[in-house]
């Protein structure tokens, strides 16, 4: 029984991803997930306590996979990253993020759906578990960039962090269409986006 249940975990996770990337957390149906995975409720509860545990597992998997992907790509080309101003670093990170979106489209869509949960209880629960590593990394980058004179002096750190975070979070809402979900097109849009950002915030 254990071996059979373990083998069905892949089907369960795929069915769950399909549900969570098309519906918000509250509307996502555990019964739909179980039915689409073609498993019994007993098999589901062998792996997860409830829908929340399943959702958090997928979010953690998405964050871990993206972190490993980005770290590996940056380490492959350290000379292209070090010594650049923050806007060039943004471009490189955005390009790697675009590559991740192409390589792992469901994880990418899951993260975008998660940002829409802000204000809901599940968002606070997930952030408490996942932590705020991304926000801390961004603040550290901006601190260093301010020291290096990459930003106009009239803008406060708080304003820069909030503006940059908002712009990157909502990039997909501005540009995403089926034809734009091609790597070269995404990179072109991202480069223009960062150049626009630099025109407003940069020196």
TrEMBL record:
One of its GO terms (molecular function) is DNA binding. It comes from the Bacteria. Residues 29-48 bind DNA. The keyword Cytoplasm does not apply. InterPro entries: Homeodomain-like_sf, HTH-type_Tx_Regulator, HTH_TetR, Tet_transcr_reg_TetR-rel_C_sf. Gene3D superfamilies: Tetracycline Repressor, domain 2. Residues 6-66 form the HTH tetR-type domain. Keywords: DNA-binding. PANTHER family: ACREF/ENVCD OPERON REPRESSOR-RELATED (PTHR43479), ACREF_ENVCD OPERON REPRESSOR-RELATED (PTHR43479:SF11). This is Transcriptional regulator, TetR family.
């Amino acid at each position: 029984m254990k071996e059979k249940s373990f083998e069905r975990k892949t089907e369960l996770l795929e069915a769950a991803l399909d549900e969570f990337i098309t519906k918000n957390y509250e509307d996502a149906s555990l019964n739909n997930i179980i039915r689409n995975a073609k498993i019994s409720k007993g098999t589901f509860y062998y792996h997860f306590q409830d829908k929340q545990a399943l959702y958090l597992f997928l979010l953690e998997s998405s964050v871990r996979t993206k972190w490993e992907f980005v770290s590996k790509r940056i380490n492959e080309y350290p000379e292209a990253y070090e010594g650049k101003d923050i806007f060039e670093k943004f471009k490189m990170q955005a390009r790697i993020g675009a590559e991740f979106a192409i390589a792992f489209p469901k994880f990418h869509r899951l993260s975008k759906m998660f940002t829409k949960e802000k204000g809901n209880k599940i968002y606070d629960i997930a952030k408490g578990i996942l932590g705020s590593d991304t926000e801390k990394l961004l603040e550290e980058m901006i601190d260093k960039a301010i020291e290096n004179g990459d930003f106009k002096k009239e803008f406060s750190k708080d304003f820069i962090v909030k503006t940059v975070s908002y712009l990157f979070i909502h990039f997909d809402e501005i540009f995403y269409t089926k034809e734009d979900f091609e790597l070269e097109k995404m990179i072109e849009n991202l480069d223009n986006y960062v150049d626009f950002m630099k025109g407003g915030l940069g020196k």
